Structure formats: structure tokens, C-alpha cells
Amino acid sequence: MTDVIIEQTKEVIPKDLLLLADPSEEMIAEYIHAGTIFVAKLNSKIVGALVVLNTRPKTMEIMNISVYEKYQNKGIGKKLINKAINYAKESKMKTLEIGTGNPGLVQMILYQKCGFRIIGVEFDYFRKYYKEKIIENGIECRDMIRMKMEF
Ligand code: COA
């Protein structure tokens, strides 16, 4: 989708969009104000969002990446990730991290296509930190697959 633009924003991002990537409003509230937010816009309409956060010295993490279902699989997610990579490099980071749930095969494929590698698993992360059980692709989202890329 060539006419999609990605821009940094201080706009309030629709909650339903952020909830696609992170079903916990409580967790979103913890990073949304501290993070840097980018949106993907198509004809001035927000169709995707990206939130990155400086989590440790020289380390940035993609805290939320989401594209409305209707607009998925058209290259917008990849554009948002490339924006995160460029922004982390411009911000002189050495590492960019992302985490995804164990059922997230499409996510894991996409992140690896973009250059992330799996570095570990946080076992029972979602059972520990999320009140509600999350079911995705017919299995419980239980463990967090940690991925990173180094510059
Ligand atoms: N099997 C294998 N690969 C698949 C796939 C499938 N079923 N569906 C999509 N892909 C691949 C595509 O082939 C594409 O790669 P390509 O460009 O080399 O062909 C890539 O995955 C999708 O890329 P893109 O279209 O840029 O992604 P997107 O705009 O659909 O955004 C997400 C990806 C994850 C942001 C989007 O699906 C989303 O918002 N999901 C819900 C929220 C979420 O899970 N966020 C991440 C939390 S960790």
C-alpha cells in the first residue's frame, strides 16, 4: 500500500486498535504515556499504530504494533516495523526488542522477515501478568517469545 503514511503523533490512539495487540487496558496504560507513538494513516484515517519505549540504556522495545483487521496483510505492519527500526537507529539505540505470545505464528514470521531473532522465552508471562486467559489460534497464550535485533 503505497499511499499509507507513517507519522509520529501525540494524538490519542483508538483503544480498539491498541487492544488488538494487547488485550489488557491496564498494561497499555503503563506504557502509552511514556512511549513514542507512530500511526499509519490511509487517506487521513488511522489504520495502524506503533508504540516504542526506551526500556533500558541503548534498548528500545516495540510495546504495541497493531493494524485494523481490514487493512492487515497489505504491508502496513512491515512499514511500521521499519519505522521502529529507523527510529531506534536515529535514537542511537543498540538493540530493538519485541515480544509476542506463543500462538502468534504470523507475528513471529513477520518479525523474523524484518530481522528479529528469537532470544528466549518468558514462561507463563501471560498467566502471571494478565488477569484474563487469552486464547489465540485455538491455544492459550501463555508464554512470551522474546525477540531482538542488534544494530
Ligand atoms: N502465514 C505466513 N505468513 C503470513 C501469514 C500467514 N498466515 N499472514 C501474513 N503473513 C506474512 C505476509 O506474507 C507478510 O509478509 P510478506 O510481506 O513478506 O508477504 C507478513 O506476514 C505480513 O506483513 P504485513 O502485511 O506488513 O503485516 P500486517 O499489516 O498484517 O500487520 C500485525 C501485522 C501483526 C501488526 C497485524 O496482523 C495485527 O495488527 N495483528 C493483530 C495485533 C497483533 O497481534 N499485534 C502484534 C502483537 S505481538
Features:
binds coenzyme A, 5 helices, alpha+beta, 29% helix, single chain
User: Helical proportion?
Assistant: 25-40%
Radius of gyration: 15 Å
Strands, total number: 9
How would you state the average pLDDT, rounded?
96
Compute the separation of the termini in Å: 27 Å
The fraction of residues in strands falls at: 35-45%
DSSP summary: helix tally: 5
Largest sheet: 7 strands, mixed
Indicate the overall shape: globular
Which strand order does the major sheet show?
Answer: 1-2-3-4-5-9-6
- Unreliable spans: none
Class per helix and strand makeup: alpha+beta
- The ordered H/E elements are EHHEEEHEHEHEEE
Which ligands are bound?
coenzyme A
How would you summarize the topology of this molecule?
Elements: E1 4-9, H1 15-21, H2 25-32, E2 36-42, E3 45-56, E4 59-67, H3 76-90, E5 95-101, H4 105-113, E6 117-122, H5 125-129, E7 135-136, E8 139-140, E9 144-150
Parallel strand pairs: 4-5
Antiparallel strand pairs: 1-2, 2-3, 3-4, 5-9, 6-9, 7-8
Bound molecules: coenzyme A.
Coenzyme A (COA) binds at residues 20-21, 65-67, 72-78, 100, 104, 106-107, 109-110, 113.
Description:
The protein has 151 residues and is α+β, with helices and mostly antiparallel strands. The chain is 29% helix and 38% strand. The strands form two sheets. Strands 1-2-3-4-5-9-6 form a seven-stranded mixed β-sheet, with helices on both faces. Strands 7-8 form a two-stranded antiparallel sheet. It contains five helices and nine strands; from the N terminus they run E-H-H-E-E-E-H-E-H-E-H-E-E-E. The model has no long low-confidence stretch (mean pLDDT 96). Strand 4 (59-67), helix 3 and strand 5 form a beta-alpha-beta unit. Bound molecules: coenzyme A.
